[in-house]
Amino acid sequence: MGKHIIRTEVEIDASAEQVWSVLSDFNSYPEWNPFIKSAVGQPIKGERLQITIQPSGAKPMRFSPKVLASEPGRELRWLGRLIVPGIFDGEHCFIIEKLSDTKVRFEQSERFSGLLVGPLRATLERDSKRGFEEMNQALKTRAETIVFDKRA
Predict the structure, then answer these.
(1) Would you say domain 2-151 falls under CATH 3.30.530.20?
(2) Secretion signal: which residues (predicted)?
(3) Which of 6, 55, 91, 96 is geometrically suited to a Cys-Cys bond with 127, CB 3.0 to 4.6 A?
């Protein structure tokens, strides 16, 4: 069975609470998120979400992951599966690491496992990683803009 991990990170000049407020506000994703085009549901452990992802230049994919962890200001993690366990599973993780009151390290990663990981590895590394990086930058911009707006 194949396994593959993609991990990206970015430093954001905003508080952990501000980054979490942007990350957990699924309704606003269509306004700013270039990777996760739509997220329906609540970021609550045990909930099932309806997610549509579309890395730039790629076709949209829809899936219904289950939330595994949700700690405001710290972590959001879900598990998505293609058809049945063991074919193609993806555990997607967002970690907010507080560096100071006004700075965090945001890490987005996904651990893939299953029979289709090998054949899809190049696509994952190219498209999914690009999607993560694009989302990280958009999250940074939005969280830092909200901070700026509140100071004005």
Answers:
(1) yes
(2) none
(3) 55
Give the position of tokens 């496992």: 113
Q: Where along the chain do its domains lie?
A: 2-151
Locus of tokens 């993609």: 6
Residue 31 region by backbone torsions, left for phi larger than 0, else alpha for psi between -120 and 50, else beta:
alpha
Do 147 and 16 touch, CB atoms closer than 8 A?
no
- pLDDT by residue for the chain (152 residues), tens only, comes to 689 999 999 999 999 999 999 999 999 999 999 999 999 999 999 999 999 999 888 889 899 999 999 999 999 999 998 877 788 999 999 999 999 999 999 999 999 999 989 888 888 888 999 999 999 999 999 999 976 665 54
Q: Residue 126 and residue 118: Cα distance in Å, rounded?
A: 14
